[in-house]
Amino acid sequence: MDITKLNEMLKNVQKPARYMGGEFGISTKKENAMNFAFAFPDTYEVGMSHLGHKILYDILDKKEGVYPQRVYAPWPDMAEELKKNNVKLFSLEDKRPLDTFDIIGFSIQYEMCLTNVLLMLELSGIPLLAKDRDENCPIIMAGGPCCVNPEPFCEIFDLISIGEGEETLPAIVDCYKQAPSKEEFLKNAVKIEGTYIPKFYNPAQKDSCIIPVPNVEFAPKNVTRSIVRDFEASSYPEHFIVPFIAPVHDRAMIEVMRGCPRGCRFCQAGMIYRPVRERSLERNKALADKLLESTGYEEIALSSLSSTDYFGCSEIVDYITDKHQKDKVNVSLPSLRLDSFSVDVADKVQRIRKTTLTFAPEAGSQRMRDVINKNLSEEMILSSLERAFERGYSKIKLYFMMGLPFETLEDVGAIADLTKKIQYRFRTCTSVHKAKNLSLGLSVAVFVPKPHTPFEFCHIDTPENIKEKQSLLRRIMPKNVKLSMHDSPLSRLEAVFAKGDRRLNKVLVDAYKNGCVFDAWSEYFDMEKWENAFKQNGMDLFCLSQKETSTTQELPWDFIKVGVDKSFLLREFEKAKNAITSPNCFEGCAGCMINNTYEGACKK
Amino acid sequence: MRYRLCFEKNEEMIYISLLDFQTFLQRALRRAKIEMEFSNGFNPHPRIEYGPAVGLFIPSDGEYVDITTLYDCKELDIAKSLNKQLPKGLKVKSVQRLSNVAPALSQAIGAAKFVFKIQTSLSAGEILHYVKREDIFVTKKNKKGILTKKEIALYIDNPTSEQTDEDEVTLTLYMSQRPNNILNPNLIVTALSENFPDKIGIVKIQKGESLFF
Which of A369, A536, A552, B55 is the right S-S partner for A374, CB 3.0 to 4.6 Å? Predict the structure, then answer.
């Protein structure tokens, strides 16, 4: 592409470094290699923080005959510049126009990024729907957690890869190189684990849902999520790209384990990343050393869904803080559980500065925490926080949800009661190290039911109920607490797309044509445009979001087998009704039957 | 041990702000295994002092940074190992060992050379005559967003001009780099455009070496 033109364009946009590439550690051009684009439908800063992206980029970088490159959704100012100058969206590494790639792989992390996929395709001059694209167009594929229900956006993609990509992505690349035509490639790719080719399935009405049914004999009826069976031996990057501008998570990361043993009933990640697989302490230590040396980062995160559940959590924190003490390396622990062990570990990593401690009790009342299987008693919460106060922590942030299934107004009121009890514990704490004042921040989000969880049969709470619950909380919450509550229209839309079927493809395209982009960014989200898109297709957003789902009917995502058995989900749902908890994977087996799909994968 | 590093910053690196450059340099120093001395206190930072920031989009031949290392290093080794860790468009040109009593970078730097390549129908003499005036005013938005007049002749020193092409005049001048007395070189372009409407085309600015006390 014309570099002088690019330079002129970059002078007119915010944060030009988002588009210039050339960072430390990028892949270098290979001769006679096929071009694979990792496309992330959000800004550079969000995309560069994503660990899955880094793992897969590194795998393709090491692989012969493929040149991986990155591209992120351009911010509206850059999108405007591209259109004005008649320049196609390009990759950061080689400044290659996107429509000249062999494969473009989109990472769908969040339902509300979908319009950005369309923006990126349009800016590349690629037709938005798979059926309108010919042999000369690149293969457009998708991956990421949202693909466990691919139906609402499946018509955009030629291929959707479900599950973990460490082993399947290289297989897809090899399959592409061997195939003489696009058609042949798709036919062969069906055989790769976790691969869903939407055009080989027709929509069929079943009960009140539209479900996909194979229209060719070689397409399997069910698609099984791909997983990494030998996590210890699986590939993990030893160097990261170090960006020039700070991404959201500006640090090195090691994935200490995959999956979460807890089994919270609302959590999709807890279900779709099963079974729990822990990496050995030796490998994690070696990875931490190598990453810190190769990137020069001053901070490293122990990343996973629940890092304090990792068997060697304390040891690895000690190892890193001791070994890299002279370089002043910090360890950061995302997703802390509210128990005394977590407070001890957090205290260990923050030897000098006492920053904010963030926890997620999720619900205020004990009954509600049992409904969601949080396995956290009130005394555990209060005593852990007291322990934190004794050590001088004064800034606490707590995450809650409202609109959970079987929730009453009393349960919401219990959030305020719990807050008061925490404040009381702070006042009565007699430690000499106690800070002067307590700064308590609460964030209360609206619960969005997700597929493949025990709550997949539920719908999002009604706007009236949410409003009532929010105003109740505002009324009874102590005034010295920072209370932030989330936007309910965006959650409603997310709920519809999370549990939607194939009919939503048209809505998505119409919403994009109405001007919806960057929906996850409050400055660009426009509910009216979305509502119009639903109306244009004879649908009503509100009705869809409130649709009852019976436990016996077939759901649009049931053909995707994530490994957790439907009977387990139903059993958990029944338990939730009666507020009965299930044990975590380390204490006892709740019978999710993951080993039936992946023999011997679950060692617990 | 204190060292003064002179960087050259051009190509795509002109889009990187000083703030981002600071974090980037700290990481490059770690990768280059140059062991830095850290500040004491609650939030220890490596001891690095940065010279005045050059504006975005302006390539520079002389960006200065002072670093304090834990151990004695050879000047050439610092340049060599650091350059291996720097991206295209950023390069250590020279490393100079400083005595412990040498003044801080912000105190030592006096002025910097700026070269303006101006596409214009005016002659070199006309431009020089204007820049040598004692009253050059430019309209500029202040922090509150209100348009104000700013006097900029005070900041300009030792200007020379030369006809470098048929429609190109190269203006070279020195501008103060003293703290609180730094002028954005783009304001000189604004002043020229305001005084000679429609006669100033594209102006390319390049920062040259700095003068030390």
Answer: A369
Burial class (CB in 10 A: 0-12, 13-18, 19+), A225: buried
Q: How many Cα atoms occupy the beta-carbon half-sphere of B32 within 13 Å? A: 22
The number of C-alpha atoms within 13 Å of A533 and in the hemisphere containing its C-beta is 21
Provide the number of CB pairs (under 8 Å) joining chain A to chain B.
Answer: 54
ipTM of the complex: 0.86
B47, B67 contact by CB (below 8 A): yes
Q: Do A24 and B88 touch (CB under 8 A)?
A: no
Contact B87 A23 (CB under 8 A): yes
pLDDT tens-digit readout, A7-33: 889 989 999 999 988 898 999 888 889
Strands (E), A386-497: 395-402, 439-446, 481-485
Q: Which of A466, A459, A472, A462 is nearest to A414 (CA)?
A: A472
Which amino acid does the sequence have at A558? D
CB distance A238 to A287 below 8 Å: yes
Q: Which residues contact A420 (CB under 8 A, 6 or more apart)?
A: A478
- Any bridge partners for residue B90, and if so which? B9
- Cβ neighbours of A569 (radius 10 Å): 21
Q: State which residues of chain A have pLDDT below 50.
A: none
Side-chain-side CA neighbours of A334 within 13 Å: the count stands at 15
Per-residue pLDDT tens digits for A428-459: 999 888 888 999 999 999 999 999 999 999 99
* Structure token digits, residue B179: 């703290």
- Distance between CA atoms of A292 and A300, rounded to whole angstroms? 8
